[in-house]
């Protein structure tokens, strides 16, 4: 087993849900966590709380749809802590709806955040990790990266793309001692359903999320992947509530 202690971990979408839970768990295991999201109040409060608990954290307002901001977040990690061990490209949203509703703005937001945001995280981290000859890139996909159902086409497309990009990345970075992990959760209780803009879809998702499991479940999966010995690369973790079909 590797220890998480001392590892420098950048987390996008750290202001709530899975990102926040992961920041808390990894900081409790003595990682140095670098928190990015758009809501300054939330990430600053989280960093302060982690420090009160005896952990190490810094926060920087980051919009993952802007490469320069993702780069600045990663650069802050390296400037502050001297290296970059892990990046968790977690920021995402799920304004699902039937394609026939033509919610083109929602399609674009999902592509910009869920897909381009992940690519920008890779672009920011990869040169540093290649130079270090070590690192771990964790990209958040979903059960929706494995299947599609009515109303989830665009969301599922972004999550399928994250898996394909991550696997392509894995094959390319083996000479650089860089690990890649796809994290594919099912229903986990977070603010994600709040991003749905279509009323009937929102109602259906609210019903579905009654079986959702706590965000700490995701954080434990992340910790498991990081804690494996350096020569063990956990390529994907797919998990869901026991009650989820
Ligand atoms: P939340 O809504 O609780 O968190 C989403 C996070 O993404 C927030 O911190 C939000 O921060 C951030 N975010 C959204 N847009 C941007 C942006 N443009 N730039 C930076 N950060 C952004 O949902 P989850 O924690 O559930 O979602 C995290 C990831 O997990 C997503 O990729 C989601 O698709 C995935 N996922 C979640 C599942 C679930 O059931 N919860 C299941 C499968 C996958 P802010 O608004 O402050 O910018």
Automatic annotation (TrEMBL):
SMART domains: PKS_KR (SM00822). InterPro entries: KR_dom (IPR057326), NAD(P)-bd_dom_sf (IPR036291), Sc_DH/Rdtase_CS (IPR020904), SDR_fam (IPR002347). Residues 7-191 form the Ketoreductase domain. Keywords: Oxidoreductase. Coiled coil: none annotated. The keyword Manganese does not apply. Pfam families: adh_short. Belongs to the short-chain dehydrogenases/reductases (SDR) family. This is SDR family oxidoreductase. It comes from Asticcacaulis aquaticus.
């Amino acid at each position: 087993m590797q220890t998480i202690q001392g590892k420098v971990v950048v987390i996008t979408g750290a202001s709530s849900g899975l990102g926040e839970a992961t920041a808390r768990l990894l900081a409790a295991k003595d990682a140095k966590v670098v928190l990015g999201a758009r809501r300054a109040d939330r990430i600053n409060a989280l960093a302060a709380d982690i420090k009160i608990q005896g952990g190490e954290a810094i926060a920087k307002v980051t919009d993952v749809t802007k490469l320069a901001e993702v780069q600045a977040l990663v650069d802050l990690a390296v400037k502050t802590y001297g290296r970059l061990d892990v990046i968790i490209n977690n920021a995402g949203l799920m304004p699902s709806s039937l394609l026939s509703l033509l919610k083109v703005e929602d399609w674009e937001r999902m592509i910009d955040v869920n897909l381009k945001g992940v690519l920008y995280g890779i672009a920011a981290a990869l040169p540093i990790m290649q130079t270090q000859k070590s690192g771990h890139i964790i990209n958040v996909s979903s059960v929706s990266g494995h299947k599609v159902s009515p109303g989830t086409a665009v969301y599922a497309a972004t999550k399928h793309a994250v898996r394909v990009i991550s696997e392509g990345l894995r094959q390319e970075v083996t000479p650089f001692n860089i690990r890649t992990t796809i994290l594919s959760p099912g229903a986990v209780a977070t603010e994600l359903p709040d991003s749905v803009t279509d009323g009937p879809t929102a109602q259906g998702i609210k019903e579905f999320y009654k079986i959702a499991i706590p965000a700490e479940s995701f954080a434990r999966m992340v910790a498991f992947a990081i804690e494996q010995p350096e020569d063990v690369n956990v390529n994907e973790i797919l998990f869901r509530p026991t009650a989820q079909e």
